[in-house]
Amino acid sequence: MPFNLLKHAFILLFIALSLCLSQPGSAATHAAAKPGEWWNLPYPEPFDATSLSRQQSTIRVSGNRLVDNKGETITLRGVNISDPDKLVKNGHWEKAHFAAVKSFGANVIRVPVHPIAWRSRGGEHYLELLDQAVHWANELDMYLIIDWHSIGNLHTGLFQHPMYDTNLQETRVFWRTIAARYKGVPTIAVYELFNEPTKMGGQLGELSWTTWKAINEDLIDIIFAHDPSAIPLVAGFNWAYDLRSARENPIARKGIAYAAHPYPEKTRAPVAQKAADWEQTWGFIAKRAPLVATELGWMREGEPGAHVPVRDDGSYGPAIVKYLEKIGASWTVWCFDPDWPPQMIADWQYTPTEQGKFFRKEMLRMNK
């Protein structure tokens, strides 16, 4: 080989080797970390989307609708499960649990991640549970909503119960972690930024809509920087019931949706007049952006665990489904767990409660 060609070949080999060794996570960059060697800890790995068995359509926002890859409207109707960490401890974190949800006709599962569970299990190990959820949902052709399940005032750092304790920093890190790990994974359809903002009548301090709007826009920017295809979901005040402030001052980001938790006693109006209250307080938003009622449901007064705002005589179910269908909203019922009211199932044999029977019938009818 002529000298010049040999020299050129060595240069190309050197460049190729340099590029290989410079890749993040390579052996040259990250040696196996020994205990205490923080400098050798690898960067977090993204979820391997090639491991999924089913190709699902990416859901995106188009005007006030959720649409699939063909631009056709898609309506999500499903259930909340309880926190994966709880289900592990109950012995029911398994694909069979997701299959039971599917048998009720659901096409989406909302997964509530409690801050206390995220911290106690550790983010790395909690992500292993969410990875399993993605695989199971994908195999069953269902979508997921990941919900940062806190209740309180994120601005003041005061919360309704210790299980909801978090702060802005932890919330930012959580969504940065989730968005980076699941970038481009269509099975996870929606990110619900904060479950239920509330001031509890001032007990948790003050929180203006301007401040809350800025907090959410900051979280949305972090998510979009990692995954522009994600759909962030923003809740209003009064435990995610009141979106009236968004009428004149909506979230100033494109590609987002809004959440509502319209439990029966949030409005004291008779059943025939509830739709008017719903329209004024949160339903109007569906004219300008997608709306997902991520918590709804009821129990009879006197049933185990029944509490305000979930008591009802059974008339609420047909009324809320009729209204949500009228405005084109998606919904997930609380809760597919025999311990957390209002329950959809009475036991771990998946015996449906009154509301479980009703919503099962509706999902099997509408999610064909």
TrEMBL record:
Keyword hit for Hydrolase: yes
One protein family per Pfam: Cellulase
Domain Glycoside hydrolase family: 67-338
InterPro entries in UniProt: GH (IPR017853), Glyco_hydro_5 (IPR001547)
Coiled-coil stretches noted in the UniProt entry, renumbered to this chain: none
Gene3D superfamilies in alphabetical order: Glycosidases
A GO MF label: hydrolase activity, hydrolyzing O-glycosyl compounds
Range of residues in the leader sequence: 1-27
Keywords: Glycosidase, Hydrolase, Signal
Family (UniProt): Belongs to the glycosyl hydrolase 5 (cellulase A) family.
Protein name as catalogued: Glycoside hydrolase family 5 domain protein
